[in-house]
Amino acid sequence: RASWAMGRVARVLAAAVVSALVSDGLAFQCDGTRHLPEDRVNDDYCDCEDGADEAGTSACAMLRSSSAVPRFRCTDTKGYEPLDVPAHVVGDGICDCCDGSDEAWNDRVQCSNECERMAEEARRADQERQAQLQMGYERFRSYCDIGTRQYEAEFAEMHETRTALERVATEVAELERRKAELSTQQEKERDQRKKDADTVWKQALALPQLNVEQKSTVLLTATIEASDTGMETLMGYLTTHFPSELTDSVDDVEVFSLAAEVSEILNPTDEVVVDPAGEATKAPPPSARTVDTVLAELRQALPLESAPDMDH
């Protein structure tokens, strides 16, 4: 009952305000968009969308049930945002509208017009907000530009790296192919040299007119010319034809080193080396010793002359 009584008082007060406005010869402002003549206010027909023209009747009860209470629109805001106040606060002695229009017919209170001041404050606040938005937008664009440049630079670098990797992969594949070809070729040459060395040794050692020294010279020469394959065959020959007490004392590393030294002396290369200053010069000879000196050491390292019989 108290709620109903308060609603009734609000409607009566709003109706009184509307009647006062109309009785003073002023047209009723409806929704802030149009004006109604006197005979259409409180005529038991809801003309205004907010139901303000029927504050004293129940014609706009459906609107009031959804929007709580009828609204009163402040008349002159002078650039400030339009304001609607509940109809029941009109004439209550409190200045709700910035222009005081809600208390215009209340002799007990004088409302100053604050609309221009409030509009100016609102404009300044809006300008500050717009300035902040503009500053934020410019900073955003700056970050976007920086990010775009970084992305383009990194993308270009990635493209260059990918291109370089593809080029290196192609070169590696070509090197692997050439390596396989060279390996196959070297293996064939190695097998052929070994066969040739075996043939030369068998033919030379089978000659009856050769003595031990001559046979050892042939064997050493063939070993040197046959390089690593000759060394394998030489060591195999020593193991087969010499007593174990002689071959066990042979230093394979020393024999190979001496044979390689003789081979380098007999077959010097035109190798070019680059010194720290960047000058290209011909490589020095691998050994300053003579062939005879190295061969003498090689003969001492091998038990050739100690063999009981080299004709087998």
From TrEMBL:
Residues 1-27 form the signal peptide. One of its GO terms (biological process) is N-glycan processing. It holds the Pfam family PRKCSH-like. Transmembrane segments: none annotated. InterPro entries: Gtb1-like, PRKCSH_N. The keyword Cell membrane does not apply. Residues 177-196 are annotated as: Disordered. The keyword Ribosomal protein does not apply. Residues 37-152 form the Glucosidase II beta subunit N-terminal domain. GO terms for cellular component: glucosidase II complex. It comes from the Eukaryota. Keywords: Signal. This is Glucosidase II beta subunit N-terminal domain-containing protein.
